[in-house]
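User: I'll paste a sequence; please echo it back and then give the predicted structure.

Assistant: Echoing your sequence first, then the prediction.
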Amino acid sequence: MKTRALLPCLLAILLHGNADACGSYKVAYYDHGALSSRQADGHWRGIDHDVIAELARRTGCKLEAQLESRVRIWTMMEAGLLDMTTSGLTTPEREAFAYFIPYITTRNYLLLNKDVDAGIQSLDDFAADPRYKVAAVKSFRHGPTLDAWLARLRAQGRVYDAVDVTALIRLARIGRVHAVIALQTSWVPIRAETAAAGMRVMDWGHDPLVGNMVLSRKRVPEATAALFAQTIAAMRQDGTLEAIFARHMGPELAPAMLRY
């Protein structure tokens, strides 16, 4: 999926900028597996939290966290009521109200319940059997292939919209749906649990997805957007991003997450 690069002139602003005067911004996270999730001690941790913490440390900006649903995040971003969010996908409509700074690549998988026939070996196979339903997180973009497939099933009343990943997995566990669409960052942290439940993880050639830092055009100055873009680029270059990905996803998966 293509991402929109910030204008070169914005990067030039950085050379004369002052990180100490960066300011304070609200960053909205959402519940999504290795990206952001509540831990046993009650604290929220994940890839996005670590990236934001490092971004704040390097720039001197004060980046304050808040937790929201993904639907509410995009509603607030479009209305100019939120400064920033994480791991967002670009669309032409979204680019009208936000800057996008790429920092992570992932992909979707289909997790099939154990009662799905073994002969179901593709998206078309699944769609051809009207018994089967699928769940996806509401407002998520999944890439051209899966979004078109979901639209096809949605027209048949076979798609359940979940508010977040926790609700998504719950729908599968209680048998309300026969499959869920989950990002790699969603199912890897619970892969032992899904395997024990007999769920099959199907990689059917889904589109790579580039996650971006999303900054409000109304609320974040261009100079700050340029500063963040340059800082994220430096974090990729010096290995910081890969180290963060490895911490949460394992060293074998981390390199591919930098292919954007």
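The chain has a mean pLDDT of 89. The chain has eleven helices and eleven strands.
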